[in-house]
Specification:
The structure holds four protein chains of four kinds.
Chain A (H helix, E strand, L loop, with lengths): L1 H5 L44 H11 L1 H26 L4 E3 L3 E3 L1 H4 L29 H37 L1 H16 L2 H19 L12 H31 L1 H8 L4 H37 L11 H9 L6 H29 L6
Antiparallel strand pairs in A: 1-2
Helix pairs in contact in A: 2-12, 3-5, 3-12, 5-6, 5-8, 5-10, 6-8, 7-8, 8-10, 9-10, 10-11, 10-12, 11-12
Chain C lengths: L1 H11 L2 E16 L4 E17 L3 E5 L6 H8 L7 E6 L2 E2 L5 H7 L3 E4 L13 H11 L5 H14 L16 H13 L5 E5 L7 H18 L2 E6 L2 H7 L2 E6 L2 E7 H6 L4 H9 L5 H6 L30 H5 L5 E4 L2 E3 L6
Parallel strand pairs in C: 3-8, 3-9, 6-7, 7-8
Antiparallel strand pairs in C: 1-2, 1-4, 4-5, 9-10, 10-12, 11-12
Helix pairs in contact in C: 4-5, 4-6, 5-6, 6-7
Chain D lengths: L1 H28 L4 H6 L5 H10 L6 H13 L14 H36 L4 H15 L2 H19 L16 H34 L2 H8 L4 H39 L4 H11 L2 H29 L7
Helix pairs in contact in D: 1-12, 5-6, 5-8, 5-10, 5-11, 5-12, 6-8, 7-8, 7-10, 8-10, 9-10, 10-11, 10-12, 11-12
Amino acid sequence: MDMRDREIQPASPLIAPDTNLMVPAEPELLVETPGVIPEAEGPKERKPVSPLRESLRRLRRDKRAMVSLGVIIFMVLLSLLGPFIYQHLGGIYNSPDNGPIPATVYRTFYHQELSHQDELPSAQYWLGTDDLGRDILARLMQGLLVSISVAVLVEVIDITMGILVGVLAGYFGGWIDQVLARLTDIIFAFPGLLFIILLTGIFGTWADTTLSNVPIVGPNGNARLLLVSAALALVSWPLMARLVRGQTLQIKEQQFIEAARTAGSSNLKIIWRHIIPNLFSIVVVAATLDISNTIIGEASISLLGLGVQQPGSSLGLMISEASNAVDTHPWEVLVPSVTLAILVLAFSFLGDGLRDAFDPRTKD
Amino acid sequence: MPENLLEVNNLKTYFFTRGGVVKAVDDVSFTMRSGEALGVVGESGCGKSVTALSIIRLIASPPGKIVGGEILFNGENILEKNNEEMTELRGSKISMIFQDPMTSLNPVFTIGYQIAETVKRHRKGISNDQAWQRAIEMLDLVRIPDARRRAKSYPHEFSGGMRQRVMIAIALACNPQLLIADEPTTALDVTIQAQILELMKGLAKEFGTALMLITHDLGVVAGTCEDVIVMYAGHIVESAPVRQIFQTPAHPYTIGLLQSIPRLDEKRGTRLTPIPGQPPDLSREIIGCPYASRCPRVQPRCRQERPELKPVGRGEQLAACFYPS
Amino acid sequence: MVQQQMATSTATGTTLVEVKGLKVHFPIKGGLFNRTIAHVKAVDGVDLTIRRGETLGLVGESGCGKSTTGRAILQLIKPTGGSVKLNGVELTKLPPSELRKKRAEMQMIFQDPFGSLDPRFTVGQIIAEPLENFKRGNAREIREQVAHLLEVVGLNPYYVNRFPHEFSGGQRQRIGIARALALRPSFIVADEPVSALDVSIQAQVVNLLQDLQAEFGLTYLFVAHNLSVVKHISDRVAVMYLGRIVELAESEKLYELPLHPYTQALLSAIPVPDPEVEARRKRIILEGDVPSPVNPPSGCNFHPRCWKAQQICREVTPPLEEKERNHYVACHFPG
Amino acid sequence: MIQFLIKRLIGLVFVVIGVTFITFIMGYFAPGDPIRTMLGEHFSPLLYAQLRHAYGLDLPWYEQYWNFLVHLAHFDFGYSFKTQGRPVWDILKDGVPVSMELALWALVVYLLIGVPVGIISALKANTWVDTLNMGIMLVLYAMPIFVFCVLVQVLIVFIDQETGAGWPVANWGEPWHYTWTDIQFKLAPVLVFGLAGAAYFARITRTSMLEVMRQDYIRTARAKGLPERAVIYRHALRNALIPLITVTGVTLGFTITGAFLIENIFNIPGIGTITVSSVLDRDYPVIQATTVLLAFGVVMGNLLADIAYTLVDPRIKLE
């Protein structure tokens, strides 16, 4: 998971930085200058095209990215609204163990219906049940909710810290830059997953007791999610900061920064109005690609038994539970695996699409 | 032996891009004699580099493609040659040097190797040692001091001017008949430019090589070339011996160019006469003369018909204008 | 006639900018503990006075420190040493807030028409930025000023909401000029303002700069490597070599009678678009490259390439002295 | 060169100290008492005190850390908490060869598949060959590695059921032995691991190759009349491979991280499995040791890559 981040490091000679900052190398062959205004031409009704609008237009033409965006929106809606709709669509079931129970009970992700173990999809359980008779679809939707919440939480921290530290380090240099450099050195030598394993492994039981009182996320064995998120954010923000730092250094060298200083703008204003808006595209791309890492990271931790605990659900936990019986019930391991793969691929494709949209030249 | 070393007839090189077809070179014809020094002048985007790359058949394809015309080199049409025959020709009969000496040499090979490689490629049966000796000889010729030792250096150990000398050494190593120099001094300082031009001129004479010098700098042409071609928007607008171009320019664009650049020997207080507007977008269809929108002498006819390159009555001078001066 | 008037007016003009012993040394880090192991002496003791209303050309080959000099005068690069006075006020010792106020009086026009405009700002925002910083009016007044400035530089105010990438190089350079004019500065450093433009567009911008100077009474420091353009636009020209000024004279005089060997070589190296002149001219072809500013040659730093060099040139740095009236040269054997 | 090495070695020591310090601090502040866990419900206070002293846990934290560093300098990782008195090295020594074998073969697959696929894609850029190649590589690259493992397992199960073959879905053979049974065990994990990395290498190689093919010196090589073969394999490839050296160094981090999951799913008794179980058991000395080993491996990998880089690229001087 470390490697994914590398691919967008500006330090690498392979990757072209934000186009909008670049002078076209070969004007003679540069034919795609979007409609330069000819001097002879009088004022015409034509909307000004901002670089952002231009990028979004390119993104809309990218089928793969748009399908991915659709998949992501669908998964988000599924995880948020899915359980309520799903529980309304089922009738009363007469359980041999529990008597008559409504769908709001047996279609929850934690209800164990031992009369229905290891079943394939049916009208009652749309995606079948697991070895404890729990509804796989319900668990899947809960797992998605976990993945997406962790992703959002981690990215918020990641972007905030990354921009804050990265811009300060890049713009002012000095001790912040030194600290950041040392920090990223250590993180590169300390494989992210290993660190997260240590943190969650060592503080997991503590989190179970202390953090389970936190509202919303606390109950249902999800207490460790906060810990997992914190751990994921802790290893991802220095990389974001390094990326931002590199980009800031590049923007800082642009003449428009010097021009702003000549125009009497203070450092704060230059950072706020010139540096940060120009970081927008690279941060959005990096964050989108990083969501994939975060989701994989959370799933990996749960897979290793250090994340979400029973009776909670997570895609990683589902895979881990089902993989013991992969030779007898492959269906149970396929469902969460494929869902996870689709979710992660969607974010990767969207990230790739965003990168191309912001910088059409990378697409060769 | 044919009369002309090079004869370009109705050359058309287009670029097929998402934004449309860019007619970078559109119906260009000219000739070069053996040993002649020809200057091709024009602003960026006028098609001068594309013309040169078409002659040596190094147009990046896609998006570029030579869609029409013929290029006769020693009477043979280059456009009909296959790839293998073309590689035989490149570097031995036709050589080319490029604008940016900083990036034109491969950073991981020594200077000597890069010269010797060309020699090895084109001289059948030459030994590695002999090729290396030739490399050192060439480095001496382009006046790189201590050539024997410097041959083992890598490009990054050389300055821009020195690297351009190495490029000249590579280009001339096999005694080519034609040397195409695409803005060879644009990236260099004036004092270095003077060194390089002097060297190139001298060596071309010595080797009997015809020189095609592509530049945007009219001054460079004036001191180096015998004949001049002026290009604009993919067309040749004027061609003439160097003295005529500067003394009696016929095309309004040539006149405009001459009046818009400050001269070192001008009297103070003179004012420049700029050419208004900017060159046309080549991805759009141009009807009539491409210079019509900027021309001070424009007539209705110029906007409808495209003028052909015709003699303007002063010997070898040709201009593509209905109303030449 | 015109010529003479100009000469006298510049001769009597009062001093606007005074530069003394300006030095800019950039440290090179390296070694085991990333300590400074050497300095790039980009600017190494420059003295200049710029008179009110004149254009002083600053010319030299790449790496000679001419752009750094311009930036150091504007305090965009902190000078390592020396003094810069604008209207009698010492700029190098001003605290940052005071310096920011001073920026209204001194502006810059940049080389790169692509990189000098923030791609995410509209033309209006770009030109309004200095006006907002200095609170020159409310939103409506600033809008009016921006529209006026666009007209002044020959652009249609209709395009105020367009983004830089929708303009050609020449048009962008006009936008940059409008921004520099916004605060009505008295002094403008133009750093290679036309070198990124096509020849036919260069003349448009050069003429515009001259017109604006007449209209607003501007003082220019015109930095460029193209001596023909510098000579055309400047009243006086200073020639730089390896961080020092080697010759300074009225532009006509410098061309007619250069005193420093480097200036002579430089002038003779510039091609003139006239085959007759080219055929007649005698070329001085300099040997070798410009030495590294990390380790400049001792004494007169031009001596390794100079055909007149004597022992004294290797040992003693010649000072910039007035050898003729208003003609300064730093050479032991001028002429 | 010497100066560069010294500089890098100082950096290496710094990083190892940083890594161990973080791990140590985490262990020190971890909730719970390892000795108490070790002794179970019933114990005498005397025994408790003795053990605490034996493991040095009664010292202030800085002394504990200092002792750890001193021992580390002698390659002494101390004793395990879980299995009392067993040296940590004794626990690790079975896992290390297994993990190294897995990583080494995976690296071979990275290079042997990833690099050629990347080159082919770059040379056929934007044709169907490229699109297909890169489509597959993108999926392999973006998919979580353990999902890939699981899918392969499902596939093996399916094939076993259909053909009656007894291909194993888990476990590892004898390290560095290659009988047919060993190969059967090792093939799936190595391929899964290798292909995931190969996808990354293919992408990097393609980008790098395309970048190089655009360079001016490639045009020069063509203008010299070199045949396309020489242009690509002599002039382009040599330059395109330079960034790959750095990537290979960086990949070690990925290889280690990936190994944790692969070993978990395929039930391979490597260092990853040992780490995870020692974390679950809170066996700090073992955790410390594995962390140091892995961090050391990564840093050494980067160092070797740096040295290799300078050997290939004449522009870089080690200063």
